[in-house]
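>> Question from a student workshop board

For tomorrow's exercise we were told to take the sequence and the ligand below, predict the bound structure, and bring the output to class. My setup keeps failing. Could a helper post the expected result so I can at least see what it should look like? The ligand is S-adenosylmethionine.
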Amino acid sequence: MANEAPFDDMFIWYEELYPSVDSSKAYSEYCKRVHGEDLSQQNFCTIDQIDFMLSEINLSADSQVLDIGCGTGKLAEYISNISKATVYGFDYSPTAIRLASERTYSKRDKLIFENGDINDKEYPPDTFDAIISVDSLYFANDLENAITKMYSWLHLKGMLAFYYSVMRFDRKESKDIMSSKKTPLAKALINAGIAYSVFDFTKECYEHQKLKRKTALDLKNDFKEEGTIFLFDYLFRESISEDMSFEDYKEFCARFLYICRKT
Ligand SMILES: C[S@@+](CC[C@H](N)C(=O)[O-])C[C@H]1O[C@@H](n2cnc3c(N)ncnc32)[C@H](O)[C@@H]1O
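>> Workshop helper replied:
Here is what the output should look like for this input. Compare the format with yours to find the bug.
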């Protein structure tokens, strides 16, 4: 959709979400308490998990990195700040990209943001040293096709790194998809002939989602007072009860970091 916006519900949701998230003091405080740093996250990672991913992909000041589904670009900026790499980011929300570009204008030699859809974005082959995506691959209509293209954009020895969760809402559905080797992403990687290593973050995600519930409740009045109670509602929905056992959680959720090196 390079130039054409898809006005579906999800698109409208993100368009409305990003300006509020960007200016909300309560959301900023929430991110600090839950993620360990305010990067306006829409994800399920602590900053330690981001640092772990970065330690796996080993960036330098010469690296060219792409963040797919970059939102307002604060993760891209964090990565560039600590590694000195040049980081590109694209997202299908024009509002998120505008906020990212405006905020980082003085760093525009190192941070490049553009509007784009994961389903039809194109880059020349052999462009990036690393491509990351945190909780955004869900929006690919054809995962195998999307990651095959991403792989082609990598330099030789370039790396892919994806934080990715699977949810099994229907208990009658097979538990197979919760296994790291059988998630839709693992299947797409296998079908595309891309070797991967995988790290299981299910337990960490369980703790994270419980902390999301507690922190959202602790900050509920702050959201109310600044007129952003819809942010509280959203954060509450993506959290779990502090009483839920890990055994129960594992029945419907699993989370992984997939790492691939182009050979
Ligand atoms: C769950 S959020 C994750 C954002 C960010 N990676 C983070 O970690 O905070 C998913 C992001 O994907 C973007 N998105 C949704 N559909 C997309 C698509 N078809 N192409 C590109 N980006 C998309 C949304 O606008 C949103 O910024």
